[in-house]
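Build the 3D complex.
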Amino acid sequence: MSRQTPDLVLSTPPFLRQGQTTPWIMRQVLGALVPVLVMAWVHFGLSALLVTAAATAGCLATEWLFDPRRPRGRSLRDLSAVVTGCLLGLVLPPGFPLWMAFLGGGAAIGMGKVLWGGLGQNPFNPALLGRAFLQAAFPAAITTWSPQGTGLFSLHGTNLALPFLQGTPVDAMSAATPLARMKFQSQVTDLFPLAVGDVGGSLGETCGVVILLAGLYLAARRIFDWRIPVSILASTAVLSAVFHLIDGARFPPPLFMVFSGGLLLGAVFMATDPVSSPITPRGSWIFGAGVGGLVVLIRLFGGMPEGVMYAILLMNAATPLINRATQPRIYGT
Amino acid sequence: MPPPSKPLGDEFLKGLWKENPIFIQVLGMCPALAVTNSVVNALAMGLATCFVLVCSSFFVSSLRRFIPRPVRISTYIVIIATFVTLTDLVLAALVPDVHRALGAFIPLIVVNCLILGRQEAFASKNPVPRAVADAAGMGVGFAFALTCLGAIREILGAGTFLGVPLFGPHFEPWVIMLLPPGGFLSLGFLLLFFNALKQARDRRRAAAARGETA
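Done.
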């Protein structure tokens, strides 16, 4: 202990380290989520922030409660629970009761992450698993699309429902999402409102342009594999273009398919989850094409108007298989 | 007979907690997951199983010297099926609604692994009083566990307990709890809860033992 810099360093590999650490990556993702969150705030008022905060609080509380190490709370420091909470909040409708969002955060971390062994062990994206749980538990509340807020501080009455109770709808209006309108009334929304987010929908999914910019930033910083979102968007566009060409009256144009619903948010922030997506480049292409294909099939032929969540979760389930099938040959064998 | 009375009590008590069929042995999962979407159904299922278990254990234990080993399983099944048929008809006569809700799961008690397991592992090797005490403990433990599951699922899934509303008219039902996934989720959380209790108790005991020796 006499010298600070020994001449001979004895250590085990790896010797070359990448600067990326988990907290750094999570901070970058959070930074990219900030503009999305701001747009949600602008469009949906204070409700957007409250729902996201409730979901995040649920995630943090569950992460803390099931932390196996004592004293508790060390696993909170990698910020992954915050990212999960924000992502979950952004895929919930604006008028969602806060207690349900909190519960969804608990399901996301508890059943989506801790149960499998914590960060890096989960086969499914935790935020989407939380949403899938909420969809199965409260199918009515999660498909009630409150209209956009009238100001930065507008609040939906249903947000403040007491635990176990449903919200009393102060605003009895609801705004159908573009996808629901397409599905049930065969109306295609114009591209401009879709791109800037001037439509009904989940908190973070409406403003396509901002999500794309955030995705570009993350791809440029190599936070995720750019192949996955590119492959998802391309396969969705190509497949829906084929259907549109076959029957233009029945099937919507490809740009509508890409910019409506949660496809952009899912492609940029959910499908690229490094834990639950394939690690090989070829696998990434296959994964993305699978998600895009499933999204188009569910949206056009399924019973539900939107299918991004189930498409990504299904492909998450296929990820180990894809990894095995696309494993590169070891050099020399 | 004063001496065997304490072991008899132990035979009964072990089924309630230490060897609870659902929470510890994880036996009889089919009815535990399928019919526990309300307290009434769960309780009816639990009591029916308990009745069949006690009666079959009594007969298997008293006939244990006459049952030839090669055909013992089929003999157990015949004995169990007798009481299941009895239960089926009695339930249909007394509480037709519950009988309809339980449906095929009443006849399926015949192949409940808990009942068959107790006959093979206990009743066929022990005298009648012990066999009956064991069966009663297991049956009550099973009914208790089913009722726990049913209570969780009914309270969260419908906002009622035994049909009485608990939360007023604005309750938001957790639809998932009444569906099959709700059964798996509740059972998983109950197992988690009881395992956590057990671990905490073991830790406390270990700490106490260390304190004594130190």
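The CA atoms of residues 33 and 184 of chain B lie 7 Å apart.
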